[in-house]
Specification:
This protein is an alpha/beta fold. Helix content is 33%, strand content 19%.
C-alpha cells in the first residue's frame, strides 16, 4: 500500500474555496466531494518553522525544542537561527514504517537525514547543495529535472509587483516537485511518498489572492489530477502546515514593548547604515539584477548581512540582539507570536508575565479591532522537556493581523507593506482513498494527528511520545484500520540523527519576509 502526502505550505480553504466553486480547481473539487476535508489546527505560532516538524514527528514544539525561526538566548544575550534538522528533538514518522519512504522538499530538514529511501531537504533553510540523501541523488535531480531548492531571484519579489522574474521561477519549482513525485511513484518502491510545495505560500504572502497565486493553484490542481489517475496511489492526503488570510493590520510587537517600558534599545551599526541610505531594499535588488546576489551572500558573514536595515531603519534576528539593552530590558519578541521574558529571578519573571498578559489582553488596533484571538502563557501552549526554553507568552494573532518582530520602527500599527497575506492557525486537511470515509466528521483535526493516524493506517505501532491522536473516524466503518485497535508503544525516539550546521539562511528568510 502506498500513501501519498501532498504538503501545501500555507494551503487553506479560505483562499481556494471560491476557485473550487467556480470550477477553476476541478480536481480539488473531486477530492473534497469524494474524500473528506476540513480545516486543521496548527501548533502555535502557525509558521513553517516549526509546524512542518510538528507534522513530521507528531510532537509539539515543547518536545521539539524549536518554537520559531529564531531563538532568544538570554544567557549569551544573542538571537540565533533555529531551523536546521539537528535543532529539532524528534524522529520523523516515516522512519517507523516497514517500507521505504520518499520525502521531497520537506522544509526545516537540512541537512537531510539518512532514511530507508530518499530524502530531499526543502526551503527556505536548505542550501542549494548537499540537500539530498543519498548524496548522489542531487546530481540526478539537477540533470533530469533541472531541480533547484530555491528560485535565484527572490529579492525581486514585491507585493506591489506581481510581474517579476521570480514568479515564473516559482512555477517551475512547483512543476519540478511533481515531476519527481510522479517518477518516484512509478518506481513502485515506496510505502509513503511525501512532497511539499513550499513556495506556494511565498506567493500567497506577497500576492494573497491575485491572479499569480490562482495560477499556481491551477498548476497544482492539474498535477493532482494526474496523480489521481496513477495506479500506484492507494491513499492520498493533502495537508498544510498552517493556513493564510489577507493582512489588514500590521502590529509591531517590539515597538509596543519599547513604548510600554518592557524593551530598552541602544544605537548600533544599523543606525549609521540607515542614515547613509544603505538599506536592504536598495542593495539586494541591485545585486540580484547584476547576478551576483548569491555570491555576495556566500562570502559575507551572516552577522554582517543582518546589520543591513530596511527602509524604515528596522532590524531583525542577530542584528536585533545587537540593539537590545539586555541589562535594562524585561522582554523581547519574535514575529507572529512568541514573547520572551528576560528576567532571571522566577518571581520577577512571573510578575512580568502577568503584567504582559494583562496589558496585551483586549488590545485593539486603531479601528477598534482585536489584535489577538488569545494571549496565552507558554506553559499552557507547550509541554515537554524544552518548554522552559520557549516563549513565556504566546500571542495568537487575530484574523487579518500580521505581528512583525523587527526592532526600530516608531509606529505600533501599520498597513501591509512587504506582505499582503499572513499565516493563520487553521490550515487544511483532505483524505482520499479506499479506506477513507467521505462523511467523516473531523472538525477538531490537528496537525499532530496526521503522523499517528498514518502509522495506524499502515499497521504500525504509534510511539507514546507522539502528542497527536489516531483519528480512526477518518476511516470507513467497514475498513480494517477503523476496526483495528490502536497500539501505542514506548520506543526510543531521540534527537534527529544530524548535527546543527552553520549556514547563511537569514538573508533568504529576510527576502521572503519571514524575519519581520
Amino acid at each position: 500500500m502506498t500513501t501519498v502526502v501532498l504538503g501545501l505550505d500555507g494551503g487553506c480553504f479560505e483562499l481556494i474555496q471560491p476557485w473550487i466553486g467556480d470550477g477553476s480547481l476541478s480536481n480539488f473539487a473531486t477530492l473534497t466531494t469524494d474524500g473528506t476535508s476540513t480545516d486543521m489546527q496548527s501548533c502555535l505560532p502557525p509558521v513553517t518553522c516549526p509546524n512542518w516538524q510538528c507534522y513530521a514527528t507528531g510532537t509539539n514544539p515543547g518536545k521539539l525544542g524549536v518554537f520559531w525561526w529564531e531563538a532568544v538566548d538570554e544567557d549569551e544575550r544573542k538571537i540565533e537561527n533555529r531551523s536546521a534538522a539537528g535543532d529539532f528533538d524528534g524522529t520523523h514518522y516515516w522512519r517507523f514504517l516497514d517500507g521505504d519512504a520518499a520525502v521531497v522538499n520537506l522544509p526545516t530538514s537540512y541537512p537531510p537525514l539518512e532514511v530507508d529511501g530518499i530524502h530531499v531537504a526543502g526551503g527556505p533553510g536548505a542550501e542549494q547543495t548537499g540537500y539530498t540523501y543519498p548524496e548522489s541523488l542531487e546530481e540526478n535531480l539537477e540533470e533530469k529535472y533541472d531541480y533547484a531548492v530555491h528560485p535565484e531571484k527572490m529579492s525581486l519579489l514585491s507585493g506591489d509587483d506581481p510581474d517579476n522574474d521570480c514568479v515564473p521561477e516559482i512555477y517551475n519549482l512547483i512543476d519540478s516537485r511533481f515531476d519527481v513525485l510522479e517518477d518516484e511513484l512509478e518506481s513502485g518502491e515506496y510505502e509513503l511518498v511525501h512532497v511539499t510545495v513550499f513556495y506556494l505560500n511565498v506567493l500567497q504572502h506577497f500576492y494573497w489572492d491575485m491572479d499569480v497565486v490562482k495560477q499556481a493553484w491551477e498548476k497544482i490542481d492539474e498535477r493532482v489530477g494526474r496523480l489521481l489517475e496513477m495506479d500506484e496511489v492507494d491513499h492520498f492526503v493533502v495537508m498544510s502546515d498552517h493556513g493564510s488570510n489577507e493582512i489588514e493590520t500590521t502590529f509591531r510587537i517590539n515597538t509596543w514593548l519599547e513604548q510600554h517600558g518592557y524593551l530598552q534599545t541602544e544605537s548600533g551599526v544599523s543606525d549609521y547604515l540607515h542614515k547613509a541610505g544603505i538599506t536592504q531594499e536598495r542593495v539586494r535588488p541591485v545585486l540580484a539584477k547584476l547576478g551576483v546576489e548569491w555570491w555576495t551572500r556566500r562570502l559575507l558573514p551572516e552577522r554582517v548581512q543582518m546589520l543591513l536595515p530596511d527602509e524604515e531603519g528596522s532590524v531583525d534576528k542577530s542584528a536585533k540582539g545587537d540593539v537590545i539593552d539586555w541589562e535594562r530590558s524585561q522582554a523581547v519578541a519574535s514575529g507572529q507570536g512568541p514573547v520572551y521574558v528576560l528576567a532571571d529571578d522566577p518571581t520577577e519573571r512571573e510578575q512580568i508575565v502577568n503584567e504582559l498578559i494583562a496589558d496585551l489582553e483586549g488590545l485593539t488596533d486603531e479601528a477598534g479591532n482585536a489584535v489577538f484571538d488569545q494571549v496565552l502563557r507558554g506553559e499552557d501552549v507547550y509541554n515537554g522537556p524544552h518548554t522552559g526554553r520557549g516563549p513565556d507568552v504566546v500571542l495568537d494573532q487575530a484574523a487579518g493581523v500580521h505581528i512583525e518582530g523587527k526592532i526600530g520602527n516608531d509606529d505600533v500599527f501599520g498597513e501591509p507593506s512587504k506582505w499582503h497575506g499572513e499565516n493563520k492557525d487553521t490550515g487544511m486537511f483532505i483524505g482520499y482513498g479506499p479506506d477513507i470515509d467521505e462523511t467523516a466528521a473531523l472538525s477538531d483535526m490537528h496537525i499532530l494527528d496526521i503522523a499517528p493516524t498514518l502509522l495506524h493506517l499502515h499497521g504500525e505501532d504509534v510511539p507514546e511520545r507522539m502528542d497527536g491522536e489516531v483519528r480512526r473516524n477518518l476511516f470507513d466503518a467497514e475498513s480494517e484500520p477503523a476496526n483495528r485497535d490502536v497500539s501505542r508503544v514506548d520506543v526510543d525516539v531521540g534527537s534527529a540523527d544530524s548535527q546543527t550546521v552553520e549556514r547563511d539562511v537569514t538573508d533568504r528568510l529576510e527576502d521572503l519576509g519571514y524575519m519581520e
